[in-house]
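Hi P.,

Sorry for the delay on this. The queue was packed all week, but I finally got your sequence through. Input first:
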Amino acid sequence: MKARSGERWTVFVNFGLTFTIAVLLGFFAGRWLDQRWHTMPLFTLVGVFWGLGGSFWYLVRKVRESENGGKKEKGPS
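Then the structure:
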């Protein structure tokens, strides 16, 4: 079944918001840890890359889900 155009743009908005929030959360959490432990920029970089990795994992999961007709994949057993 083909997605309507109204549904299609919501997927892009959802990914954009997820990507932005994950990276910003990683950045600010890392910055807070760096300020607390005086390790600038170690945890800031780790937080940003963690946010990027989580965002891309989310994107891959959603693409696989859409290829399977909306069925969620089972995790490793």
